[in-house]
Design a protein that fits this description.
The complex is a heterotrimer.
Chain A lengths: L1 H31 L6 H19 L1 H23 L8 H23 L14 E4 L2 E4 H23 L1 H11 L1 H6 L4 H23 L11 H5 L2 H8 L4 H20 L11 H16 L14
Antiparallel strand pairs in A: 1-2
Chain B lengths: L3 E10 L2 E11 L4 E5 L6 H8 L7 E6 L2 E2 L5 H6 L2 E3 L12 H8 L8 H5 L3 H20 L15 H14 L4 E5 L7 H18 L2 E6 L2 H7 L2 E6 L2 E6 L1 H6 L1 H9 L10
Parallel strand pairs in B: 3-8, 3-9, 6-7, 7-8
Antiparallel strand pairs in B: 1-2, 1-4, 4-5, 9-10
Chain C lengths: L1 H26 L2 H26 L7 H16 L13 H25 L2 H7 L1 H13 L1 H4 L5 E2 L4 E2 L2 E2 L8 E2 L2 E2 L2 H25 L1 H11 L1 H6 L4 H27 L1 E2 L6 H14 L4 H20 L17 H19 L3 H13 L11
Antiparallel strand pairs in C: 1-6, 2-3, 4-5
Helix pairs in contact in C: 2-8, 2-9, 2-11, 2-12, 2-13, 3-4, 3-6, 3-11, 4-11, 8-9, 8-11, 9-11, 12-13, 12-14, 12-15, 13-14, 13-15
Classes of the chains: A mainly alpha, B alpha/beta, C mainly alpha.
Chain lengths: 296, 261, 362
């Protein structure tokens, strides 16, 4: 029983990290219709900058540098590539981000190599015992930070001019543009915000209980894709729910892997994808995604 | 010859009622126009007839066959062809290949035979290409057969889409604003083509249109929609004198709701 | 006269290319033949993927999974019975055919998902097959050999070794060993794949797929069963991947799970984009580019500046190759959306006779 409670808390924590990644992904999709396959590399870049600089400039400054770098890359992708490709097909836009991912991913994999990099975070491997349960502090920190960021993000979307403009652009970009909304700015801010969220997620993916940042982090980051699809690709609340669902599925599958051994080792890694297929069979546009008007 | 019967069809998009219990009957061999101001539900109506939207209530019949539950490709195979307001042709393909797409449902689906290039597949392809050239001839597109559709001027692209619909050998042709964006001469030509389709090919035509002049000239019967409701159904002559129609077109404030495409 | 010349030129080019490819084993050493074999296997897969992504507009990362099914399927059907890993001992040609059929069947099994999703959703959903596939390859040890993989069974055809040297054959003084023989099998497979794909793309199927890509609604009202078309594209493309998997297994001698990871799927996408989406010739060219580039760079790393030794942590041939094809993907989409194939067409158009402009018909 205690095991289950710990697993659920850990699952929610991992899920909130996935939610951050998924939120960034969805906001890019809503604002620019780009399915960003370079999202994992942006995350990895942010985490790598933190890992590479904290020794010299300290953890807080390193985090700031990591967030700034990921945001800058987001901005560059938007300005140099996406903004030149408006009105092209979704496939073309997605493929451009695959190209970026190939280059960025190759360089980061080369730099990290086979090492496991320390993130220099203050939580170390501390745990917190309460009522007989044990929780890693870094996991609790992840939940807290994610919660703050998700609330801040929701406020950004709901109350700022940018949020209104972004939602209008998602409804109908052409009409929004005619009403004087500057799509370029909407798209720029979306990419920057997504970069920041991805870097924060990258930090927490590489802290305890993970041993540090290794080349496999980008594979872990990919599990935010099932989160996005489960929630519905154009739904911000869906991204959060999808993130939590996937985090829970992964943690529970890994936690009960002994009992589930007949399904093979490493079940946690594949559970998110199994959940995604199941949801897609049931609802092709995810739990909260906009359903197609036409049927063909 | 077959009759198309629209029976109490309603379509809602969230709070917006796009069609509100609309009924009308299209008699075989006629040109039937569906008109109305922007946002009246004309395009929605066409989308229901071609199966792209499933109505929330009501039914559509082709003779005794109910169409409402069928998917669009099924309806197409029953002999209902349509065009789109904002031309949907494959720009990179030649005019001839675009027209061949109209023959899709008339050709046998033989994947393996096609893959291995059996002679019977080539023979079938040639037979259909011959027919497609006749149709291109009928619509004056022969000279453009080898050109990519994207390079055609607007008027010809519109005509290509009509030709592709005719290549399906339909019983019923649904046209979504066939003269939108055309000048007077082009409009007159298109009107002439539509009448020839009806008389020479015996195809029943349902026409969604904006251009009142064209409608009164070629339609045998007119259904007028306003805010999703049917406000008139009858001959073009009677329409001009109908107070409700005059009100909707001249008196009523122009609707600002965007019509779902 | 020049008109006839212009019509004959492409044909002459084809004949020359075929002669060169047929004669290559007489002049080129085993290293390059092996590299060429890997490229040919990739080309078969790329041709299949361009049907799905290029023609039907359905983005898919599942290709590596289907390659794995083909490769392992062949190993199982034609593997020696009684070994540590499952082997049915079927004749190799039959085993290869069955492996391709099984790949198609698995593609069909996934098609309820594939056919209901719009292109971009499929892109994300198809990631699942790669990871589920990796999980199975690592865990079904009795079939796959687990992490260490399993050997590829020999390919013999009516007593003639294709991946061996019995009975011995010598052509123009060059002894034809496994690599030389496999080269011709690869050529036959590639030619077959190319012809089949061209036939499909030119006919009823290809027209329908391209219309589905351009507008699902328009395709549907033209009588095209959109879901069925997408499912067909998915199944056919996975069968090409199955064939590519069998060829890869033969070319590599051994199948291991790590080869069939996400990176392979990404490479396949890079191939068809660089070559020009929807073009058979482009897919082959792109496959040659993406597979041969790291091999060429590694071979000449001693001579080339900037190329570090593998494992040194510097920019080695593999990393440099990824930089190149990643950048090529971005550049193609930005400035030349129809890829190398489009570039070729444009060059030919410039060299060929001017197309007489058509009179506007009314």
């Amino acid at each position: 029983m205690s095991n289950l409670v710990e697993l659920v808390i850990n699952g929610l924590s991992l899920g909130s990290i996935y939610a951050l990644i998924a939120l960034g992904f969805v906001v890019i999709f809503k604002a620019t219709e780009v399915v960003n396959f370079a999202h994992g590399s942006m995350l990895m870049l942010g985490a790598y900058v933190i890992a590479a600089t904290h020794g010299r400039i300290g953890f807080p400054a390193a985090v700031a540098a990591g967030l700034a770098t990921a945001a800058t890359v987001g901005l560059l992708i938007d300005r140099l590539l996406v903004s030149r490709l408006r009105r092209r097909s979704h496939t073309a836009l997605a493929i451009v981000t695959i190209g970026v991912d190939i280059v960025l991913g190759a360089e980061l994999a080369r730099r990290v190599g086979t090492e496991v990099l320390n993130m220099g975070d203050p939580w170390l491997d501390h745990t917190w015992r309460v009522a007989g349960f044990t929780f890693p502090v870094s996991r609790l920190a992840a939940i807290a930070v994610a919660l703050v960021l998700i609330v801040a993000f929701a406020a950004l979307v709901r109350y700022t001019d940018w949020g209104v403009a972004m939602r209008a652009a998602a409804e109908d970009a052409e009409a929004a543009s005619l009403m004087g909304i500057r799509l370029g700015r909407v798209s720029m801010v979306a990419w920057v915000v997504a970069g920041v969220l991805a870097a924060v997620a990258g930090l927490f993916l590489a802290t305890f209980p993970s041993p540090g940042l290794s080349a496999t982090a980008s594979t872990t980051a990919l599990r935010a894709f099932p989160a996005v699809v489960v929630g519905g690709m154009d739904s911000l609340s869906g991204a959060v729910v999808g993130g939590l669902v996937i985090g829970l599925a992964e943690t529970l599958a890994a936690g009960y892997s002994e009992q589930l051994l007949f399904l093979g080792r490493g079940l946690g890694d594949v559970a998110p994808y199994a959940v995604m297929i199941a949801v897609l069979l049931w609802r092709p546009t995810g739990l909260f995604g906009t359903r197609e008007l036409s049927r063909v | 010859m077959s009759t198309l019967r629209v029976d109490e069809v309603s379509v809602r998009f969230g709070a917006l009622v796009a069609l509100d219990a609309v009924s009308f009957t299209v008699e075989p061999g006629t040109v039937h126009a569906v008109i109305g101001p922007n946002g009246a539900g004309k395009s929605t109506c066409l989308n229901v007839l071609s199966g792209v939207y499933r109505p929330d209530a009501g039914r559509v019949y082709l003779d005794d066959r109910e169409l409402t539950r069928l998917r669009p490709h099924h309806i197409a195979r029953l002999g209902i062809a349509r065009t789109f307001q904002n031309i949907e042709v494959s720009g990179a393909e030649t005019v001839e290949d675009n027209l061949m797409l109209g023959r899709h449902h008339l050709m046998r689906p033989r994947l393996a035979a096609t893959a291995f290039g059996l002679p019977s597949v080539a023979r079938e392809e040639r037979r259909h290409r011959t027919r497609v050239r006749e149709i291109a001839d009928f619509l004056g597109l022969s000279a453009a057969l080898d050109r990519p559709a994207a390079l055609l001027p607007y008027g010809l692209r519109k005509r290509l889409e009509l030709a592709r619909a005719l290549a399906m050998e339909p019983r019923l042709l649904l046209l979504d604003e066939p003269v939108a964006g055309m000048d007077g001469a082009e409009t007159a030509e298109m009107a002439d083509v539509i009448l020839r389709v009806r008389t020479e090919l015996g195809v029943t035509v349902v026409l969604v249109e904006h251009d009142m002049g064209m409608v009164t000239r070629i339609a045998d019967r007119v259904t007028v929609l306003d805010f999703g409701r049917r406000i008139f159904d009858g001959s073009p002559a009677a329409m001009a004198a109908d107070p409700a129609v005059v009100e909707a077109y001249l008196g009523g404030a122009p609707s600002s709701t965007k019509e779902p495409a | 006269m020049s008109d006839r010349l212009n019509r004959l030129m492409p044909k002459a080019g084809w004949v020359a290319a075929v002669i060169v490819l047929l004669a290559l084993p007489l002049y080129v050493d085993g290293f390059w033949l092996s590299a060429g074999l890997v490229a040919m296997a990739a080309a078969v897969g790329a041709v299949g993927l361009t049907l799905l992504v290029g023609a039907a507009g359905q983005l898919s990362f599942a290709h590596a999974f289907f390659l794995a099914v083909g490769a392992y399927g062949y190993a199982c059907f034609s593997g020696e019975p009684g070994a540590a890993t499952l082997g049915l001992g079927l004749p190799p040609a039959l085993g290869a055919a069955l492996a391709i059929a099984v790949t198609g069947a698995l593609g069909l099994a996934f098609s309820p998902v594939a056919s209901r999703l719009r292109g971009i959703y499929l892109g994300v959903a198809s990631l699942s097959l790669v990871f589920v596939g990796q999980h199975l390859l690592h865990n079904l040890t009795g079939v796959t050999g687990g992490f260490n993989g399993r050997d590829t069974p020999m390919f013999t055809l009516a007593g003639f070794d294709v991946t061996g040297s019995e009975p011995p054959v010598t052509v123009a003084g060059v002894p034809f060993g496994a690599t030389e023989r496999l080269w011709y099998l690869g050529l036959v497979a590639l030619a077959g794949a190319g012809v089949i794909a061209r036939n499909l793309l030119r006919g009823r199927t290809g027209r329908a797929l391209r219309m589905v890509r351009d507008s699902e609604v328009a395709a549907a009202v033209l009588g095209v069963d959109v879901r069925r078309s997408k499912a067909t594209a998915f199944v056919v493309s996975s069968m090409f991947a199955g064939a590519a998997g069998v060829l890869s297994a033969l070319a590599l001698d051994r199948v291991v799970p790590d080869y069939f990871g996400l990176l392979l799927s990404v490479e396949f996408l890079a191939m068809i984009v660089i070559g020009g989406l929807g073009s058979v010739g482009g897919a082959v060219t792109g496959a040659a580019f993406v597979t041969l580039l790291p091999i060429v760079l590694a071979r000449y790393s001693g001579v080339l500046p900037l190329v570090a030794d593998a494992g040194s942590g510097g920019v080695d041939a593999a990393v440099l190759a990824r930089f190149c094809y990643g950048a090529a993907v971005v550049l193609v989409i930005l400035i030349q959306p129809d890829g190398l194939a489009g570039l070729g067409r444009r060059l030919r158009a410039r060299l060929g006779p001017a197309v007489p402009s058509l009179q506007e018909s009314t």
